[in-house]
Amino acid sequence: MNLIKKSNEVFVIEDDVAEVTRQDVLALKPFAGASPRKRSRLCAHRDSSESLHEMFIALHRDTYVRAHKHPTKVESFHIVQGEVDVVLFDDEGNIRQVVSLREFASGKPFYYRLNIPAYHTVLPRTEYALFHEITNGPFRQGDTLFPEWAPPDDQPDAAVQYIAALRRRVADKAVA
Question: What CATH code is assigned to 3-175?
Answer without folding.
Answer: 2.60.120.10
